[in-house]
Amino acid sequence: MLQKSKKKEPSASSSLTAGLYQTPFYPLSYIKVLIQIGHEPLPPFKSKSIFGREQFFYPNNFSYMRYVYSVEGISGLYRGLGMKIISHSVATYVYDTVNQMLDESESMESEQSIERKDKNEEKLAVFIKQTSKELTARCWGVIISHPFHVMGLRCMAQFVGGETAYSSWNIFHNVSEIYRSEGILGFFSGLIPRILFEASTIALTSSLAYLIKNYVYEDKEIDALIDLFSSLVANSVTYPLSLVSSISCISGSSLMAARPPRMALYASWIDVFKHLYDTNQLKRGSSSFFRVYQPFESQIAGFSLGHGTVRKFN
What we know:
Elements: H1 12-20, H2 26-36, E1 45-48, E2 54-58, H3 61-76, H4 81-106, H5 110-114, H6 119-161, H7 171-182, H8 191-215, H9 223-250, H10 269-278, E3 291-292, H11 297-300, E4 302-306, E5 309-312
Antiparallel strand pairs: 1-2, 2-3, 4-5
Helix pairs in contact: 1-4, 2-3, 4-6, 6-8, 8-9, 9-10
């Protein structure tokens, strides 16, 4: 079960600090996005799996990071950092603001609603209330910050073609670029699968933790481990939605990474999901090590005509 968040006044400084916390591990997030959109500049190599079977593997994420460094230097590992900081800061500020509003609206009735219920009913009521509040606050944070999230991912994707259409820090330049080529809807590319990912992850994490804590192992000392386990399981289950969202955010742009032959043309995020499912790529980018090579010729050498139909170049 999700722990009740501490009450605090939302502030721009604390939200910016939360955004800046992304900086140390940003290169790993950057490499993950490049892998998610299917950019594999390093050739696979043959090795043995943990079961002793010979397979082809892609180099791990740290090898990929060294490659990016060799091409663009240290600055190249931080493409899109500014948009990432802005996106996370805005999401944090909105999340804290909505949480505060929900706390204030519930403060007058919370004691009366729980006061005379038995223990199990009380636990369930608290679980539902906290999960609902977390879902509401997180989803509003995602919606308001999503345009900056799109800008950040497109900055990262520019590595594929070496473009400079999107800026890591200039919001107005990015707004002009997206509006000129795609209109208002371009700012919300990939929003639906991202909301579905966030909502389903929160729901699965909190539900699994609640069930384990109350019906399997009632020991407060390992609550943190149960929360961690629940989070890992939930993120593994919902990962395909995160992948679909990342691809959808870039799809439709004028970047080389979003055009054939590097990426199929998709009519919607459902097209993206269908294509990844058909090519067995729904877990692409989920692992940093032991990245098993799975050829997906239909995506590399083809393009989509809509509704998930992929044809190869002749």
